[in-house]
Amino acid sequence: MSDLAKLIQQEIATSGPITFAWFMEQALYHPQWGYYTSPGTKIGRTGDFYTAPTVNPLFGTMLARWLYQMWDAADRPAQWVVAEYGPGTGILARDIVAALRRNHPDLYATLNYYLIEISDTLKELQQQTLTTGEPGADHKFHWVNRLAEISPGYITNGCILANELVDAFPVHLVRQSGGELQEMYVSLSNKEGDSVFTFVPGPLSTPELAEYFNSQNVQLEEGQRAEVNLQAREWLAEVTAHLQRGYLLTIDYGATSEELYAPFRHDGTLRCFHKHHLVDNPLTNLGGQDITAHVNFSTLITWGEQLELRKKELVSQPQFLINLGILDILKEQPDYTQDPEFAKITSAIKQLVLPGGMGGIFKVLVQEKAVSQGN
Ligand SMILES: C[S@@+](CC[C@H](N)C(=O)[O-])C[C@H]1O[C@@H](n2cnc3c(N)ncnc32)[C@H](O)[C@@H]1O
């Protein structure tokens, strides 16, 4: 049994069943043995899953174009901060800054790019990616543990980015049973003489869970399971507390409340990934597999509005990228029949835009704060 499994077993033995949110937090972010905090490749071909930045630098080029449009829409402030939460490999930061330097030198000149990463192991990987990347761009990158560290008080003007961050936040698991909402806890059971983790139902650990469904006007069907991401609200509160004026860009797989909790999703959306395979048991291979759940964009919007973040747009990833001109990139190839890069680019565009790839379930939410109120 792994050290992490032993630690969790001990916690259950001492305090009783634990919420799945606590279990998931340990499994992903335990400082020593968590999935994201322990050594090893997680993201990309030799890891467990792909993310858009690992598909092709084109994704970063498109986000650089979006950042430029937002900077322009905000009247080109002299200081423009970009802060990326959960930068993973650091590849997106590298590609965005390289594209800004190449295509938008005026924004590049004003830019400071901050990376906010919970995992020290990934922070080291990001430092490697970004110091061996674009020569001369190193001074643009800064690591902080939280937004508050960027500048005392507020980020006066800027954009906050989060690509596949929110799906990696620990979630509570609930189930509708006997006409009531129950929470699913993690406990221990005996299987052929061994202690194994198992789910047990219990009362809600916090009234926020019932309030969550009431506020979204959602009634689960009898027997239906679902996930609730309460950490997303804390994260939005942190963003809005430290961003005085600017935009928040959230890209992730997910849906609105109505789609997310529809009866056809009887078992919820919790999924695990290991070596590019879907694993259906989150209670095994602790710290060795990714655990993730779809993002509820409706709550990001309503919570955001309560926190002065106004929804600017919610669109599918394909629509977002097409609006930014991703398809025009194909026409820009100098001689696309001869260019060996062309095949890579068309394949990347297919993966980012078509329904069979990331185009199907990925959405983009843009929220803004105080942008129309002048510099
Ligand atoms: C699914 S990965 C996505 C990585 C990267 N954005 C990408 O698209 O390749 C989630 C990332 O978020 C980080 N993360 C999770 N919770 C975080 C938090 N509260 N603050 C900062 N980073 C966090 C993880 O360590 C990891 O780098």
Automatic annotation (TrEMBL):
**SUPFAM superfamilies recorded for this chain?**
S-adenosyl-L-methionine-dependent methyltransferases
UniProt keywords (A-Z) are: Methyltransferase, Transferase
Q: Which domain of life is it from?
A: Bacteria
Tell me yes or no: is Nucleus among this UniProt entry's keywords: no
Please list the GO biological process terms of this entry.
methylation
Q: Name one Pfam family in it.
A: Methyltransf_28
Please indicate if the UniProt record lists Transport as a keyword. Answer: no
Q: Which InterPro entries match?
A: NDUFAF7, NDUFAF7_sf, SAM-dependent_MTases_sf
A molecular function annotated in GO for this UniProt entry is: protein-arginine omega-N symmetric methyltransferase activity
Listed name of the protein: SAM-dependent methyltransferase
Task: Give the organism's phylogenetic lineage.
Answer: Bacteria, Bacillati, Bacillota, Clostridia, Eubacteriales
